[in-house]
Design a protein that fits this description.
The chain is built from eight helices and six strands; from the N terminus they run H-E-H-H-E-H-E-H-H-H-E-H-E-E. With 236 residues, it is of the alpha/beta class.
């Protein structure tokens, strides 16, 4: 997954007893994804819709025979519901640890607006979101892409430090996964992160290696939103 030579060099120095494998998942689909509505960190944003619940169940089935030592999740409802579906399907009792650092990017004045409403109702904030600089925060208390990267990397490294040599599920958001990709690969991901998709990241200390990305093989029967709204770095 990672640039082959760089990844091999990093993996060569990883020690099994110290390396943590993080199984990263984007939450299942929501009504606001269908409506192309910017969710951000709004606690009034809905949980999973019917297909989102099916995606979470499909993920739970796919992971039911895989070993997990712990589950962490964003504290936003759509992630909590996805994490609960996985936890409930497992033989061993695992309760998701909620970490607000895994939340979606805060989109300031744009939160709750649709992608068509936002540039009309909040043009200045919209321009902040569309700015290609990673350091531009969205007006109204929003974050920059770099703000998101810093808090997410800190959260993942803390999780890894708490679980050396273990395998941990982390349920988060499209913007969070884009931040992880940019941090690990050194460049933005040009595509979309799909609802319910799986990704594998190995961490030891401050060294990160992506082992797989955007795996949706478990969603073949339930499907996913082709537009994958919220699955790009600027949609939330």
């Amino acid at each position: 997954m990672q640039d082959d030579q760089r990844a091999k060099k990093l993996l060569a120095v990883f020690q099994p007893a110290l390396c943590t494998e993080l199984l990263l998942v984007r939450h299942g689909e929501t009504l606001w994804n269908l409506e192309a509505r910017l969710q951000g960190q709004l606690h009034t944003a809905p949980g999973l819709n019917t297909r989102g619940r099916l995606q979470a169940q499909a993920l739970a089935v796919a992971l039911s025979t895989e070993h997990l030592d712990a589950i962490y999740s964003s504290d936003l409802l759509r992630c909590q519901e996805t994490a609960l579906a996985v936890a409930s399907a497992r033989a061993q009792h695992l309760q998701a640890v909620l970490d607000p650092r895994l939340r979606e990017r805060h989109l300031g004045l744009l939160q709750g607006l649709t992608y068509s409403e936002a540039p009309v109702q909040q043009p200045a904030a919209w321009e902040c979101l569309r700015d290609k600089s990673f350091d531009t925060a969205v007006l109204g208390g929003g974050e920059s892409a770099e703000d998101v990267r810093r808090r997410v990397v800190a959260a993942l490294e803390d999780i890894a430090a708490a679980h050396p040599g273990q395998r941990v599920l982390v349920v988060a958001h499209g913007g969070v996964l884009h931040a992880i990709y940019r941090h690990t690969m050194g460049r933005p991901f040009p595509g979309k992160v799909l609802n319910g998709s799986r990704h594998v990241l190995a961490i030891q200390g401050n060294k990160h290696v992506l082992r797989s990305w955007n795996d949706c093989s478990h969603l073949q029967e339930v499907g996913f939103l082709e537009s994958s709204f919220g699955g790009t770095a600027s949609q939330g």
